[in-house]
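Deliverable D5.2: sample structural annotation.
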Amino acid sequence: GSQEKIYKIEINVKLKILKHDCHDFQTRKSKSKKFCKHLARLFFLLKEQDETSATYFLKEIGDNINDWEFND
Protein backbone atom coordinates (compact mmCIF):
# COMPACT_ATOMS: atom_id res chain seq x y z
CA GLY A 1 0.00 0.00 0.00
CA SER A 2 0.94 3.65 0.15
CA GLN A 3 1.85 3.22 3.81
CA GLU A 4 4.42 0.85 5.22
CA LYS A 5 1.79 -1.61 6.41
CA ILE A 6 2.32 -5.23 5.48
CA TYR A 7 -0.84 -6.91 4.22
CA LYS A 8 -1.58 -10.62 4.29
CA ILE A 9 -3.02 -12.54 1.35
CA GLU A 10 -4.02 -16.20 1.47
CA ILE A 11 -5.17 -18.16 -1.57
CA ASN A 12 -6.35 -21.70 -0.90
CA VAL A 13 -7.21 -23.36 -4.22
CA LYS A 14 -8.33 -26.61 -2.61
CA LEU A 15 -10.87 -24.90 -0.33
CA LYS A 16 -11.54 -22.08 -2.82
CA ILE A 17 -10.87 -19.32 -0.29
CA LEU A 18 -9.20 -15.97 -0.94
CA LYS A 19 -8.38 -13.98 2.20
CA HIS A 20 -6.84 -10.52 2.42
CA ASP A 21 -6.68 -8.04 5.27
CA CYS A 22 -6.73 -4.58 3.67
CA HIS A 23 -9.62 -2.28 4.53
CA ASP A 24 -10.80 -1.83 0.92
CA PHE A 25 -10.99 -5.58 0.32
CA GLN A 26 -12.68 -6.27 3.66
CA THR A 27 -15.32 -3.57 3.41
CA ARG A 28 -16.03 -3.34 -0.34
CA LYS A 29 -14.26 -5.60 -2.81
CA SER A 30 -14.77 -9.01 -1.17
CA LYS A 31 -18.56 -8.60 -1.14
CA SER A 32 -18.64 -8.42 -4.94
CA LYS A 33 -15.70 -10.82 -5.43
CA LYS A 34 -13.39 -8.18 -6.88
CA PHE A 35 -9.67 -7.62 -6.41
CA CYS A 36 -8.25 -4.61 -4.62
CA LYS A 37 -5.03 -2.95 -5.80
CA HIS A 38 -2.93 -5.22 -3.57
CA LEU A 39 -4.30 -8.40 -5.14
CA ALA A 40 -3.86 -6.97 -8.63
CA ARG A 41 -0.26 -6.08 -7.78
CA LEU A 42 0.36 -9.56 -6.37
CA PHE A 43 -0.69 -11.18 -9.64
CA PHE A 44 1.37 -8.73 -11.72
CA LEU A 45 4.44 -9.50 -9.61
CA LEU A 46 3.77 -13.23 -9.73
CA LYS A 47 3.43 -13.05 -13.52
CA GLU A 48 6.88 -11.46 -13.74
CA GLN A 49 8.37 -14.28 -11.63
CA ASP A 50 6.30 -17.25 -12.74
CA GLU A 51 3.72 -16.67 -15.45
CA THR A 52 2.46 -20.27 -15.27
CA SER A 53 1.54 -19.91 -11.59
CA ALA A 54 -0.11 -16.55 -12.09
CA THR A 55 -2.18 -17.94 -14.94
CA TYR A 56 -3.09 -21.01 -12.88
CA PHE A 57 -4.38 -19.00 -9.92
CA LEU A 58 -6.30 -16.50 -12.04
CA LYS A 59 -7.86 -19.26 -14.12
CA GLU A 60 -8.88 -21.25 -11.02
CA ILE A 61 -10.51 -18.19 -9.49
CA GLY A 62 -12.05 -16.86 -12.69
CA ASP A 63 -13.44 -20.14 -13.98
CA ASN A 64 -15.08 -20.96 -10.65
CA ILE A 65 -15.76 -17.51 -9.16
CA ASN A 66 -19.17 -18.50 -7.75
CA ASP A 67 -17.57 -21.35 -5.78
CA TRP A 68 -14.92 -19.11 -4.21
CA GLU A 69 -15.24 -17.41 -0.85
CA PHE A 70 -13.66 -13.97 -0.62
CA ASN A 71 -13.17 -12.81 2.96
CA ASP A 72 -10.88 -11.28 5.53
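Annotation notes: The chain has a mean pLDDT of 94. Residues 17 and 69 are 5 Å apart (CA to CA).
The annotation will be released with the project's public dataset once the embargo ends.
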